[in-house]
Every structure is written in C-alpha cells, then in structure tokens.
Write a structure and sequence with these properties.
The structure is a homodimer. With about 375 residues, the first copy, chain A, is α/β, with parallel strands linked by helices. Helix content of chain A is about 45%, strand content about 15%.
Chain lengths: ~375, ~375
Amino acid sequence: MERLLSDEQRIDWLRLIMSENVGPATFRTLINRFGGAAQALAALPDLYRRGGLTGRHRIYSREAALQDIERSEALGARFVAIGEAGYPPLLRQIYKAPILLCMKGNPAVLELPAAAIVGARSASALGLKFTRQIAAALGAAGFLVVSGLARGIDTAAHQAALPHATAAVLAGGIDSIYPPENAALHAAIGERGVLVSEQVPGMVPLAKHFPQRNRIIAGLSLGVVVVEAALRSGSLITARYAIEQHREVFAVPGSPLDARAAGTNRLIQEGAQLVGRVEDVVEGLSELLRRPSPPAEVFMQDPFDHAIAAGGHPEVPLELHERLFALIGAAPVGVDDLIAETGAPARLVVAALLELELAGRIQRLASHQVVLAE
Amino acid sequence: MERLLSDEQRIDWLRLIMSENVGPATFRTLINRFGGAAQALAALPDLYRRGGLTGRHRIYSREAALQDIERSEALGARFVAIGEAGYPPLLRQIYKAPILLCMKGNPAVLELPAAAIVGARSASALGLKFTRQIAAALGAAGFLVVSGLARGIDTAAHQAALPHATAAVLAGGIDSIYPPENAALHAAIGERGVLVSEQVPGMVPLAKHFPQRNRIIAGLSLGVVVVEAALRSGSLITARYAIEQHREVFAVPGSPLDARAAGTNRLIQEGAQLVGRVEDVVEGLSELLRRPSPPAEVFMQDPFDHAIAAGGHPEVPLELHERLFALIGAAPVGVDDLIAETGAPARLVVAALLELELAGRIQRLASHQVVLAE
C-alpha cells in the first residue's frame, strides 16, 4: 500500500483528478481500466466525445499541474496521494476518498486518533464555552481535533486544541484564508497543527467545495461532535457523512426554543450520542479506540468495475449511450437494472456509463446506482 | 370491578390505610387475608405485637376517620376507593396504587387520556415558555395535563392547561395550599380541573409525601414530560416511577452548561424520548393512544400472597420472626430465599413477614423481596 509516486506520476495524477468531470470514483475507474494516469489522460478526449460532451472540455495541462506543485512547495505544503505514507489511514477508507491531499504543517499530529468538532458560525456564548471545554479535553486525552476553520464553533475548537493537536480542513486551497480574521489561526495551525485541502493552491472556495470539505472532516475522524447546528446546516452535512462512513456522531443538546439546537436535537432523535458532559465525548471516543478497527478498503477496488473483465476499456457502440441515457432519470437507477433493461453486455454498459459520466451527463452514486447529472 | 363501599366500609378502609405501617401493599394483603377491613382492624393489635412492635402504635380511630370524611365533604371533595367508579383506571394498574384518593373538582376531566408535565421549581424563562406551549397543545389535543402545583414548571403547565383540562396532585391534604402564591390556581383547579390527594384533609405535606405524590402523577399518565430537571430532583423521581410503571418518558434537552438540563439530558441518554418540538410530545402520546392498552392488573391480587393457601392468617411460632429478621439485611432478599433458608412452610414465612412489616421492622419491595426498614 506504500505507493510512492514518481514526480511524473504525481503530475499525471494531479492532471487527471483536476480534469473535467473526473472525481475520486471516476479517477479510480480510469486508473484501473487504462493502467495508469498517463494512459487515462491520453484516452480522455475520446471518452468525452463518445459520452456526448459537446463544446470545450478541460483536460488539466501539465503546465498548470507543475505550477500547482511548485506553488505548494513555496507555501511549505506538499501533495500526498492516496496510498502513500502520510495519507491519513481513516480517510482512505471512505467512499470517494480524496485522490490527492495538499497538506502543510506537522505531519506527526495526523498519526493521533482524530475527532471532529463542528457547529454553527453564529454560536452562542455557552456553545463556544462548551466547545472549548470539549476541544481542550480531547486534546489533553491525546486526540487530534479536526474542524473547518469557520467562524464560531470551528474557531473555538481549533483555538482550544492548538496547544495539543489540531487539523483544519479548508474548502479552498491550502492558502485560502477564510474568514479573514482567522489569518493568524490559519498560520499557527500551518505550523503546529496541520492544514488539509483537497484543492490546488490559490483555489478560492466555491459553494460546492464546502460539502466536499465536510466529507473529509468526517472521514479523518473516529467521531464527529456537533455542538450547535440549525436544521439544513453544514454541520448536519458533516454528521450525515459521518453516519455514511460508519463513524460515531455526538451531538450537544439545547433548548427546543433555540434554533441553533434544532439540528443537534434532531441528530439525537436519530441516534446520535447525547453529550451531557465533556466526559461523554472523551469516554465515548476512547471506547472506540479500544475496539478493533474495521478492515481497510482495498485501494483501487471499485464497485463500478464488478462486471469488467480484464482487457481494458472496450469500444462501445455509440447507440448504447443514448439508449442508456433515456433510461436514466432524476431518481437513482441500478446499474444491474440498466444491464437487464438494455440486454447489452455488462462490460459495454459499464463502459458507456463511464463515458456518460465523464461527459457530465450522469452521476454515479454509492452502491451501483446512477442518476441524471444536476 | 365496580366495588361500591358502604359508608361503614369506607370508614374502615380509611382507618386501616391510615393505621401505623399499613401501606397500599400491606392493605391488600390484610384485606385478602382477613376478608375485609373491619376484620383486619380487629386483628391489627395482635399482628403488631407478634411482629415485635414495642411501645405505642396507632390504629386510626373511627372518630378521626369520620372527621376526615366530613371535612372532605365540607371542602366539596370526596374519597374514592380503588375499584370504584371515578378512580382513574391507569392509576389502578401501578404497584402500590393508592387505596383511597381524596378528589375535588370536575370528575369528567379524569376520563381524558392524561399526560404529566413536571420540572424544576427554579425554571428558566425559556423552560417556562416551552412548558406553556406543550401544556396548551396537549390540552387542545384532548389530553388532561397532570402536574404537582409546585412553583416553576408545574405552575406554568397548570396555568396553560386550565382552559382545557388539568389535574393537580397534592403532596399534602386536598386543602393544603403550597406554594402560597398558588392559592388562586389551587381554587381554580378545584373548580374546573381536579385536585387529587392521597392524604386526609388538613395534612401538611411532609418530605416523604413528595415522592409518594410523584408516583401518583406518573401513575395517572400515559407519559411524563420532564421539562427542566437537575440531577437528584423530584422530577427525576417522577420519571423513574413512569419507567417502573411502563409509561413513556419525554425529556426536553438543554445546554450541558445549564444544571437544569442535567437531569433531562441524562434521561434522554437513558432512553427517554427527546422533545425537540411541541409536536414530538403530542404525536408521541397520540401514538400511544392508538396502541391497545395493556391488561389491567386484577384488584387485590398481590405477589406476596403467592404461597398462601386459603384459610386466613396462620398462627406463626414466634421464634420464626427472629430467625427471619436475622436473615434480612440492608440489601434486598427474596422471600423464596427466606423460605428455603429457614425451611419453614411458605405460609408461615409470609405471615411472619407481614407481621414484621406491620411492626415497622422490615419493608417489602416489588418482586417478592424484603429489606430492613429504614
């Protein structure tokens, strides 16, 4: 599993993951199918075209990738690929684990067991105080405190954990400082803790990056503590990821008449552990540490590939794409159902779906399903 | 089950339940064994003596009982015995159900399905506000709101439910007004709602009466809503009774940094339903109403009597009392174990235990166990 990329490979990996409509799952499929990132990059123009992508499409240039790597080095950061030493092992286990992480700081802290603390930006004084108590206690107990460097709960968690160990997962690039008043905290975490980003340096965070970032916060952590969270908040998205990733969720209750408690109270109703005292978190997480860890997912294994025989990517008759596309709607449909419905060989169906996905026309979901792209 | 006592029987029942060391469970045993309250009263002096009660013992006088009944009538109240029409059916099902209840007000409200709302005397403004919302919603949904007329949450619950239906269970006699500022509320509930007391009129509430009262609050109700409660509070005692009585417990969460939420948060950790919205209570209780009700316990059935053949109360060799007493300690011991240990006939052991209990030397617990009296 100690996959050490050559410099050239790292450039190709960065190019491939940054290319249009390539995400972590597509990346794995392409690598499996074409034998490497360089070969997949060479195949991309044809795959886009066959999938029906019209107009311009972006294949990330070698120059851009080189610049990203140089810029990260200038910032004191580095790109670590999934499977390499230094890539957080818990994160590797999640669905759509990031292919490359840009990281800066003290890598030793990532060897500690991690717990996330997330919550409302407009937090109450009590919420902030309790956050600091939890973060300090987790730090003192030997946990890495993970959060998102946002205003409010996130900031309080990082500040209280900084004397121990803390990691900030950024929605934008490793050098994107937000909110501006956290510039000093950002710098301090980059020295004594760890900054983590899935984006390239210089990337300004877009709306879609925040939920992607939240999946990393949960993925790094044995458990997620939600301190104050309204319904439909980013913190609840992090909690959902934690549930999907089979991580523990802890929620701090609050008055039903305080909107900031609506999300955490709901989580408790749905099965999250109620945090009545700081010790509930520390003891709950320490208990998890004593359990045997689940078997790690094998890198590069992908459910999408279940029907693919060896032999690379097949040439798909173009009419199959449109037959499949007509069968796919806004509701998820199973890949097996599509195979049955079309009567086409499984390896052709799966190949056509990959091409449709690369063309941005469909999205794959966990558990062998696809939907129309949003 | 429509046991209608004659005036004389009611006097004897009141005398028996008010006599020294006679509680609801002992009362049942005595009635079963001697065939009626009058016969049990006649046997009491001998039973006290045989159990080892030294010094004075109080058998409640006929004059005192008559005075209680006259006084209750003068107050517009009346004594209702277990098994009689007007005795709340859910209350009849609990362990140690009250033998006689003194009640005043509108008996029709007791035919509504009931829900208790209890909580801290020193409640927060938010807690009081949420209490009023829950009480008004329960009242509007056709529930009788039961509470204890204490300061704080109880008062808010009664006030908000008064336009609909509310019952106040008093720790002292039906005419004991506490706290004094609730005199008008006490009077209003005595007119439009129902006042309930297990004590005789004029009884000033003693410390031991409060947990006894709390068992009635829970016993009247399909479920108990705890709004704010510290650890070791009376509201938690009510919740424990509700759990013992297989009633639903709802708890309103709060900040871990507010001591008034420590009890409710703990209840949720132990399995109580979290109240995140008023609707959670109304819907939860309405759901209970749709379930078939559990079979009612048969009146006068008592586990203590399991080994008693017909034929009344046997003459127990006096040395058995001391052998048994030596075997009973501060930790509960099973009646079956005592039978095995002494090798004495079960009917003699059970009779001796009754006498020891009447003498105030031991206490019986639920599920066939006894301990030393406190």
